[in-house]
Amino acid sequence: MKLVQFGDNSCARIRRYVDSYINNELLVETNHEVLRHLETCPACAAEVESRTRLKARLKGAVQNQSVPEDLQARIRTVLREDSRSSFAWTRWVSAAAAVLMVAGGLWFELARWTRPALPDLADRRGQDVFIQKVSASLSAVLKVGLGDHIHCSIFRKYPKNPPSVDEMAEKLGPAYQDLVPLVKARVPEGYQIILAHQCGFQGRRFVHLTLSNGSSLLSLVITRKQTGESMQALTVSDHASGVPVYQAAAQTYDVAGFETDQFLAYVVSDLGARQNLQIAYVLAPSVHQFLAAVRG
Amino acid sequence: MKRQEFEEAALPHLSEIYRTAARLLADSTKADDVVQDVYLQAWKSFDRFEVGTNCRAWLYKILFHVVHHHRRKWFNARMVKESDDVLDQVAASAEPIAECLTDEEILGALDRVPQDFRAVVLLVDVEEFSYKEASGILNVPIGTVMSRLSRGRKLLREQLEETAQSYGIGKGKLEGRTA
Hints:
heterodimer, A: alpha+beta, 2 domains, disordered N terminus, B: Rna Polymerase Sigma Factor, Chain: A, Arc Repressor Mutant, subunit A, 8 helices, disordered C terminus
């Protein structure tokens, strides 16, 4: 609190304390002096009024700034991934200690059980190793979908605002652009398409749509079959309007797959087996029909 | 669950942290990156946070730490030397320009205030932290907070006047324009 004596040149002196007055930081006595001055000085009263309004406008201007809608979702994803990495690391240490105490033979079993830490976005080689480790337990045909999901959806920094439907359609190209409205109309409420494009991973081309529900990422990954590839050897998890859907888990991810004569399609997420399969079940019939009609 | 506890304590402050970062950096893209870093660092040090204490002030402290960390990379920090006579200066009477400028123009003027001063104005005048809290967040003495605040407010008023004058709405020409 400030105690100020006003005398001659009080206008000049009071201006130094206008902000303190507005913020109620002056001692009672000083406050009374300022008030008395303001009653008889329209210029200083106008100054107080002006600075008070300015403070309110400044506060309003800062608070009116828009916050990216998906920022919270992205932060939750970062936190979740970090939790997993830390958790895996802790478990790795515990497992290592146990193995040292018991027997070296248990090492590989425990290491296989432990998820590797998520590498840095710039660490391409680390990412490949990560994908290899995470998908180790999957059949080759399902690894294809999980690999592109992790490569393209997880190891990615998303822009503040998702691209527009037109931009996504352009990136998908004329043959696949209708997938955007098709998927958008069928996914459960709360899911938003945040990326749609064609991409490449390990020498294959993919049509890839990434969706977010605010806390998790889900991919619809489509690629042309290579010679001899088929899901028919896998165990069917469900039939969606006659389309067999195959699902398997790889650590925290679940990969649901279905196929046409020419294409392999996958729904991949870490939403849990039940929810991932439900979304695959919802998408499979229409996506299957769409892909069956793709020519060339 | 610990992460849930963290999210419940920290995420309600996300919008204000982002908005402060956006103004502090005068760049929403950088703010986006910084805010993600802030939350990741806060999460990593959540063990040291005492639940029930001021989570908002704690997040702001981390925000300024992260900004400081990136500062060399991003800024040719234009520092304004603080002088003892700042408080002795009598600010020129501000025109009633608050109503004459848009939010964007006000934010633009704020962005032109050097960062150290802008930071204190944001903390005290916008986020309404006390001097003591701002002192803790910025890790500077309370006297420094007060002098930077006084200087920051004055610089902001000057910037706003310049903006207003550049639009020809300086002294005596305020009519006919709305915020």
